[in-house]
Every structure is written in C-alpha cells, then in structure tokens.
Specification:
The protein is an alpha+beta fold. It has helices spanning 2-17, 83-119, 124-156, and strands spanning 19-21, 26-28, 32-53, 58-63, 70-71, 76-81, 159-161, 166-170, 178-179, 184-200, 212-217, 220-234, 237-243, 254-267, 269-271, 275-278, 281-288, 291-305, 308-315, 322-324, 327-329. Strand 12 and strand 13 (237-243) form a beta hairpin. Helix 2 (83-119) runs antiparallel to helix 3 (124-156).
C-alpha cells in the first residue's frame, strides 16, 4: 500500500515536471446549470395505422399486396366475391324482362282503348284502368332497376381499397379465406412517421411540450421537439410523441435511443482544451497568485455549450479557481 502511494506520488511529480503553461489567459471557474438527461427508448411509428376492411362478406379470391408494399389511397388491394349476388342479379334481370313484357302489352291495350273510345265503343272508365295499369308497371320496372343497382353496388364493394397512402404493415388473411363484413384484410401505415416514447411516470412532471430531445440512431445524434404528452398513464409510463425530421422509414416500431431533459443541476465546467492528459492522469492548469499549479482532476462528461466543447470536472477543482486554457509539454 505504501509502495503504491510513493509510486503514484512519483508519477504525479514526473507528470508535473513535464508541463509548462502557455500564456493564453485565465478564466474564473464558476458553477453553471447543466441539464440532466434520462436515456429511454422510443419507437418509430406511423402517424396513421388504419386497417383496410372488407365491406362485403364472402370469399377472398385475391390479395395483391404483401407486407412492405407501398400503396396509394384508393388502390385495390384485394377482391371479395359473394356468389349469391350473381344469382340475385340474374333473378332481377328476369323480373325486369317479365315486367317489360307486361308493360308493352299494357301500352298496346291502352292504345286500342283510346281508339275504341274515340269511336264510342269503349268507356272512359275502362281507359282510366288501362292507364293505371301502365303507370303501375312502369313503377315496378323502376323499382326493379333500383334493386339491381343496389346489388351491383354490393358486388362492387367486394374490392378492398387502401384507406390511406403508405406502406402495408400486416396482411392477416390469405386468398381463399372466408371473411365477414368489416373484417381487416390488411393494415396500412401512412401519414409519415413520428417517434413515440414511454417515459417513467416519475419523470412526467418535468416534461413540457416543446422541450428539445436528443435522439441517437445509426446516422448520428440529432434533435427533436416534444410535440405531445398524453395524460393517460399506462403500466407506470407516460406516452409522449416527438417530432423529428428525416426519421428512417425502413422499419416501423424500430427502437431508437432517446435522451430526455429531466432536470438541472450546477456543475463545474472547463474548456476541453484546458484538460491535459499525462501518464494516464488528467490535469488542469490553475493560477495561484503569481504561480501556476497543475492540479490532477477527474473529468466527467463532455457537453457542448454555445458551440464550445466543455468538460465537467467531478473533483480536483473548486469554484473561484483561475483556470488557464492552455498548457504544453517541455
């Protein structure tokens, strides 16, 4: 133990003897407030996650998309067929043909009735009955045609459309499946992407909308803005949304490391160029009266303040010290 202390003292003495101070000026050390950051993981999510649902019950005869495909709004992504609709259309067509034949016959009867009335053979009552029969058949034909349009619209609703433009996230069914009206055929993610956080509730009170958030991804460190904080706490966590430009859209629900500002504290910071390493130890030059003293320090995390790289000093310096920003080797 005593040998180790002597060895360390000798090492420090050797390090101090190899430094000289350059006349670059001194800076009075004072504690300044720094932001405390909490590291959490956020997920890249689509702004809109809307299922493309079947409007018609029947057999899914085709699915034209798979997970990862890009779609446009209104694009047909699947087809559902209900065979009963085809039979109903044929039945309606037959009914229309029968009513049309009856109408032609009624019109002929009406025309003969008008001739007979003009000759004084038929009565006006008989002619009114023939006109009523023609009007009734015309109304029945219009009703049958409207019913046919309803069936045609039901058959057209067998086309499953993409509700928004985006990418296909999930296709839970396959061709040949029997589905019910309203059953999802695919899930579409669109409207861009955003970053969603699940923050421990003990930090929720210090978060404010508009706070700057630091995000770390494979492309580097970037900043975002806390856009929304949800009031509902689930499983001890608060949900929050962060707006970030140029988020990668290759994968949804991908996790990204995020640093949240959760408070402030006072710290002693010196410029990065004021910290010098010698023989594995870190030193800072401090002016003491007319002399310059090299003090061994324990540096902490680097921070960028107003475009200048600063190093937090955990121990070795006190507030009021005159720190010299430059030192070199003999």
């Amino acid at each position: 133990m005593r040998y180790a202390q002597h060895a360390r003292s000798a090492l420090v003495g050797l390090a101090l003897s190899t430094f000289f101070v350059m006349p670059v000026g001194a800076e009075v050390l004072a504690p300044i407030p720094v932001t405390e950051w909490k590291a959490v993981y956020g997920r890249i999510e689509a702004r809109d996650r809307i299922p493309a649902r079947a409007r018609l019950g029947g057999t899914l005869v085709s699915v034209s998309v798979v997970e990862g495909d890009s779609v446009t709004k209104g694009q047909v992504i699947a087809e559902v067929v209900d065979e009963k609709l085809g039979f109903q259309l044929k039945a309606t067509d037959g009914q229309l043909d029968a009513l049309q034949a009856q109408l032609e016959n009624a019109k002929s009867e009406l025309a003969r009735g008008e001739e007979l009335l003009a000759r004084g053979v038929a009565t006006a009552q008989r002619l009114d009955a023939l006109r009523a029969q023609v009007d009734a058949l015309t109304g029945q034909i219009e009703a049958a045609r409207a019913q046919r349009r309803v069936i045609e619209q039901q058959a057209a609703e067998g086309s499953v459309l993409a509700p928004v433009a985006g990418r296909v996230l999930d296709v839970p069914v396959a061709a040949g499946a029997v589905i019910m009206p309203g059953e999802p055929v695919a899930e579409i993610g669109g409207g861009g992407v955003f970053l969603r956080l699940a923050v421990p509730e003990r930090h929720a009170t210090v978060l404010k909308e508009g706070d700057t958030i630091e995000i770390e991804d494979p492309s580097g460190t970037r900043q975002g803005k806390l856009a929304r904080i949800y009031p509902l706490i689930e499983n001890g966590r608060v949900l929050a949304d962060v707006e970030v430009e140029d988020l990668p859209e290759g994968f949804f629900d991908a996790r990204v490391l995020v640093r949240l500002p959760v408070g402030q504290r006072l710290a002693l910071l010196v410029p990065a160029e004021a910290v010098h390493t010698q023989s594995g130890l870190d030193f800072v030059a401090v002016r003491s009266g007319d002399k310059t003293v090299m003090r061994a320090v324990v540096p902490g995390q680097q921070r960028e303040i107003e475009g200048r790289v600063m190093v937090e000093i955990i121990s070795g310096l006190t507030a009021g010290d005159d720190v010299l920003e430059g030192a070199g080797h003999e």
